Amino acid sequence: MAELSHRALRELIEGFGGCDEYFTEMISAGALIGGGPFESWYIDGGPCPEKLVYQLVGADPGHLAAATALLDRLECRGIDINMGCSAPAITRTGAGVRWMASMDAASAMIDKVRAATRRRLSVKLRIGLEDNFDYLVEFCRRLEACGVELITLHPRTAKEKFKRRARWEYVGQLRDALGIPVAGNGDIANSEDLVRRAASGCCDAVMAGRAAVRQPWLFAQARAAQGEAAKEVKTAPGTELGEAAKRVTVTNPGETPGFKTVPGTLLEETGLRFLELLARYQPPEFHLSRARRFFNYFCDNLKWGNYVKNLLGREADLAGIGKAWTGYFAEHEGEP
After folding, report:
1. Which helix H or strand E contains 124, and what residues bound it?
2. Cα gap 42→22, rounded to integer Å
3. Nearest by Cα to 184 from 206, 211, 202, 209
4. Does the pLDDT of residue 235 top 60, yes or no?
5. Residue 266 in contact with residue 298, Cβ under 8 Å?
6. Which band of pLDDT confidence, cut at 50, 70 and 90, is reported for residue 299?
């Protein structure tokens, strides 16, 4: 979710009713403690700092502990250590999923981080460098013993990326093996998937990533679906989506996008709203990269999505992107 889960996207999702927790994009521990020029943007906790989880990435235990101590001073829900990223630029430094190569090294690092914060400490990881469930269980038990309070599992190995379906059975088996909550992540394409996984009882929470970029109304749809199908959908005790459904109601259910189609007017307005939020909450140096990343997913809602992606990619600033975006809808009035 690099270049995606920043404040502008959180503001957009919150406008549709929000979700239980927001995880930031990866924050480099070294850059944060070194006072990098853009770090204030990465740690912007809005719009709901009480629901925000800061996600740290790094290979140096001292840097991770020091960065954790800095973030501990800010209002937030918790701090998360990324042990799941398999991007070569991250793994070649020893960060991300490379932490899973050594239980001893990972445990020693978590000991340092745990001592640096009073906040909830969580870890997001994969099955591992290889498909070895026994190793995964022992690895996570070590993390639990060091004070990790929540684990999010993306059930693919480091090498698989998106080559095969996420093995959600591993999420349930890991949850059964640990004494702390386990969240699941992977292959959540729409609100139906979100509700189904939350209701399955295999996890304590469900994390959605790219689907929430394509459909910022994802969580509102899920709450509406739970309300409409309460007799059929039984949410597992402790599931965060289920708890949210009890706390949050959709103000105007009739205006909530349906499962099958989304009006073109809503798509146009949402895209323009995102550009407005991006200009407000991100530095100019980030505008183009963040806009292109967002529309690379959001355009999947359009009949001619690839054409529009290429169209927007030619623009040199947010004004040009906005003009091209509205131009598409003027040309294709009445259809997404």
Report:
1. strand 120-128
2. 13
3. 206
4. no
5. no
6. very high
